[in-house]
Amino acid sequence: MNTTFFHIPLNRRKLLHRLLLTTGGILTGDLYAEALTLTPRSTEGPYYPDHLPLDQDNDLTQIIGGKAPAGGVVTEIGGRLLNVDGKPINDAVIELWQADNNGCYLHSKGVQKGKERDPQFQGFGKITTNAKGEYRFRTIQPALYTGRTRHYHFAVVQSGKRMLTTQLYFAGEPQNEKDGILRGIRDEAQRLSVIREFKPMSTGSQDLHATWDIVIGMTPEDPEQRRKGPRPR
Description:
By secondary structure, the chain is of the alpha/beta class. The protein has one domain: Protocatechuate 3,4-Dioxygenase, subunit A, CATH 2.60.130.10.
């Protein structure tokens, strides 16, 4: 896995460059942490699975006993989980849940009117970060549904405590400008930190991939806050 860097937004990169110049190339932990952007917390939404699948691995495109791969554009997401000092966090669980190729969730109320959930799509997966804080998911590009732009849901659990609930978005998606959840992230650097460009895995390939590093703080989430926000979905 090529995850030898982590995300620093452009304006923070300029800050980091200036700090390197003024410190003679020596950057302390405190100054380095200033160059990182905490991944913003976001609403969990109402469609966190209310019946978890038997298969909960990090490949959502295949299920145990499945007759065919899930429909949709195969997409891989990978990166590192970091703390505010830029140090990798190992042995943490990262969860992913999302809409399938029909815009339906793995939830008893998550099927859009007139649609059917793809029975070959896992809908939910998780992975434990390795010694370098690395994680990777193989999934599909989620379909759109009414009121939202295209997005993934993520959660980070450390020592049994939910540390972060957030969402990841696609760069260039027209609906991004109208999405209440994304627009509700007021800090520009934080907003940009959850928008990623998904590129073809190779020349001529329809499969997509993106690198996304997640930066978390030290404080666990309050469960009562997870579903607050404008029009959660």
